[in-house]
Amino acid sequence: MNKIIVDSERCKGCCLCIDVCPKNCIEQSGAPNAAGYYPVQFVLDSDCIACALCGTVCPDVAITVLRDVDEDEAVAKAAEVKG
Length: 83
Prior knowledge:
Structural class: alpha+beta
Oligomer: single chain
Number of domains: 1
Number of helices: 3
CATH class: Alpha Beta
């Protein structure tokens, strides 16, 4: 499953990532971080396509995009690189 990880202490709650997400996988959290901002969070069980638009638009570099890679595909690609 594709997903994102938000560093809630870096996020200032600008919500640019919410606006750019084509699958509506991000929402604003209800709890403030230590700086008093309301950071965003990943919507569990959402249909994230790992497009990385959220991470690209984030001015605080607070988003990491994790792509679900098929293990067999990863092994095949590694074998191609080796020889």
